[in-house]
Specification:
By secondary structure, the protein is α+β, with helices and mostly antiparallel strands. It has one domain: Aminopeptidase. Helices cover about 30% and strands about 35% of the residues. The chain has 5 helices and 7 strands. Strands 1-2-3-4-5-7-6 form a 7-stranded mixed sheet, sandwiched between helices. Strand 3 and strand 4 form a beta hairpin. Helix 1 crosses helix 3. The two termini are about 15 Å apart. The structure holds coenzyme A (COA). It comes from Protea cynaroides. InterPro entries: Acyl_CoA_acyltransferase, GNAT_dom.
Length: about 170
């Protein structure tokens, strides 16, 4: 993949049709807290009410078309030193290194954009090997297993915890 074709930018209402292509796919939402989007109206409201006002959510774009998202959600109050990372990509784009490029792009700007944040963390389902690999390739440290941590789509799941600190070396 030519990384110059990949960009991160805020969502726009006009992304709705591209958004539905991936957010309307059960394979993409399987490990996300999101439900699979069932209609264009639902997607449009979500872009307007959740994606656009979000503190740090970007559309992953291929030639400026939305093919996924990367989000960083900072904690508040005394926990504002940390933020949670999430991402997903259209199935047609899997396996080309795009999520890793997008996470590295997010790392390159997040500590400047959110200056209180010194720790970025991500929790990947124990069965989500592709996501764990993305985090490893992007330079995250595997900290351990959070056993029976979260109820997700009908089951209590084990999650693998990863972190990247503002002082960590940026991956090649
Ligand atoms: C996770 C996801 C974002 C990965 O996107 P991607 O662009 O395909 O990721 P990359 O190509 O950058 O890297 C994927 C890596 O996982 C590896 N991988 C994929 N499936 C795997 C599996 N079942 N077992 C082990 N490794 C696997 C790939 O080989 C690749 O590693 P490599 O470069 O060393 O060969 C994508 O699968 C997705 O959107 N999944 C659904 C949403 C999701 O799970 N989000 C994360 C929630 S924590």
């Amino acid at each position: 993949m030519d990384s110059s074709r990949i960009s991160l930018r805020p969502f726009k209402l006009s992304d709705v049709d591209d958004f539905m292509e991936w957010a309307g796919d059960d394979q993409v939402t399987r490990f996300l807290r999101w439900k699979t989007f069932a209609s264009r109206d639902e997607a449009s409201n979500f872009i307007k009410d959740v994606c656009i006002p979000h503190p740090w959510r970007r559309s992953i774009c291929l030639d400026d078309h939305s093919i996924g998202f990367v989000s960083i959600f900072p904690a508040s109050g005394d926990d504002r030193c940390r933020a949670d990372l999430g991402y997903a990509l259209a199935v047609k784009c899997w396996g080309q290194g795009i999520a890793t490029i997008a996470v590295k792009m997010a790392l390159a700007s997040v500590f400047k954009d959110l200056p209180d944040v010194v720790r970025l963390q991500a929790k990947a389902d124990v069965d989500n090997k592709a996501s764990q690999r993305v985090l490893e390739k992007a330079g995250f440290l595997k900290e351990g297993m959070l056993r029976k941590y979260s109820f997700h789509k009908g089951q209590i799941r084990d999650l693998v915890l990863y972190s990247f600190l503002a002082t960590d070396s940026f991956p090649n």
